# Entry
Amino acid sequence: SSDLKTAAGGKVILAAGDSATVALPNGQGISLVLTNATANALVENSGNIHAQDGAVLLTARGKDTLLNTVVNLSGVVRAGTVVADAGKTGDVTMTGTIDASNTAAGAKGGTVVLSGDRVGMFGNASINVSGDAAGGQVVLGGDSLHKVTGTEAEKLLQDGVAFANFTQVDAGARIDA
# Structure
């Protein structure tokens, strides 16, 4: 993708696969039905997405996608909530930057969720959820501690956080919380 920017509190959704339902804060949902994408569902962000304190959802999922379902994050995403959802059978690969930090006085960092069957932070990938008053949450490949419950990220995930069979964080990768 190139550069995507929203107003404060806006949402950016990049989707591929069979279908997805995205819940909005007012309780309404946006239903996305995508056809002819089930053979090789791919969502890729290689540019810049800036949603300020809003939310970014990158989802590639579907019942027929199997191992070809991939969410690839090589660019920069800046938002209060960032969710990369490849469902129970797909891959999330990250080599870029996700910034959900909040340095305003008294503010708490945001939430970042990478959910799929195989999840990896490779090379010098970085996630920042630091905050002035408290850090936020980073959830990679499963949520056994239920950190996503009650967050904006929970509304964006179609059926919760998938428990990954494989999670990798390279030595050069960095998570600031």
Q: What stands out?
A: Residues 16-41 have pLDDT under 50 and may be disordered.
